[in-house]
Amino acid sequence: MSPTQDQGTGTGSASGLPDFVGSGPDGLPDYEHGGDDPVGPTEGARRRTLVLVLSVIGSALVLLAVGTLVLSQTVFRGLDDEERTVASSTASRSAEGHEEYVPNEEDPSLAPPPPIFTQAPTTDCTMPEYAPAAAADPGTVRGGNLQYTPPEGWDYPWSESSLPYMSEVGSQGRNVEGSWYSVVNLGKVEFTEDEGGYPGLEQAAVTIFQCYATTSGVLVGFGENPEVTDHRSEPTTVDGQPAWIVQATYHFEDQDQFSSTSASIVTSIVVETPDGPSALASDVAADHPDHVQNLEDIIASLEVVD
Question: What percentage of the chain has pLDDT greater than the value 90?
């Protein structure tokens, strides 16, 4: 306030000090309780107040910013990550669940049989001249330079003088029903020079397979147009020697001719032995699990012999 400003009813004195004449009984200025203080805040006080208010506001803003940052790095971030994870997982499952199914053409149960599995053989199925098989070791069946151990139940001595492209044949059978048997033959492979001689493992196995599947003894059961499934033609080994196997299941054209079987597994295996190629040719009841297992056991027991 200015030193010359009027205070109550007094006037300023020469000394510049306030004149308290006419003041209240205590000698202080007579202000009513609750009245406005005529003395306003100083400029310094106003500045201090402004600084204090601004400090409080600034502190509040800082705290709010810190709180927002903490939430964004914890709760909100966790939610975002969870949403991204769910979205990613759903996308992956959706992609797998709607992936287009493409049949495997090499799957024997789906693909049509290749041309080698024909009802009409692609060769003449030449029958070599008869030659007896060499004596087999006790408890074995021998043909050509191969022999196998017959499983229990294979007690029918099958008689084959010769088969297409196979001589020195030895065979054994197991009854399926009536006059129908599962049979496994072994023999020495022979191709005539008129047909170009021995064509190699793969072609020899294919040729023997085709001829065996269409001989009169099996054709009478298979029919003229049986369905062919589970086919394969691939390299293998027998007793450590290179070999080739051709195999397929033939489903009989007349499904009602037998009561316990309606399909046969036809197999040919040609093996390169030190004394020339020898082969296995067989047909085994496909719907008799014990016969199928017997075939696998016979193949596993194959030995190359002199």
Answer: 51
Using CA atoms, how far apart are residues 96 and 61, in angstroms rounded to an integer? Answer: 50
Residues 6 or more apart whose Cβ sits within 8 Å of residue 216: none
What pLDDT does residue 68 have? 62
* Residue pLDDT, tens place only, 193-221: 998 999 999 999 999 999 998 887 888 89
Count of beta carbons in the 10 Å neighbourhood of residue 9: 10
- Is residue 215 packed enough to be buried (19+ CB in 10 Å), middle (13-18) or exposed (0-12)? middle
Among 291, 290, 279, residue whose Cα is nearest residue 142 = 279
CB 109 within 8 Å of CB 230: yes
- pTM, 2 dp: 0.64
What is the spatial distance between Cα 181 and Cα 86, in angstroms, rounded to a whole number?
A: 61
- Residues of the chain under the 50 pLDDT cut: 1-38, 79, 82-101, 103, 110
| Residue 300 structure tokens | 């596993």
Compute the distance between CA of residue 233 and CA of residue 235 in angstroms, rounded to an integer: 7
Instruction: For tokens 């008869």, name the residue.
Output: 130
Type of residue numbered 195? E
Round to whole Å and give the CA distance between 215 and 168: 18
Distance CA 17, CA 4 (A): 9
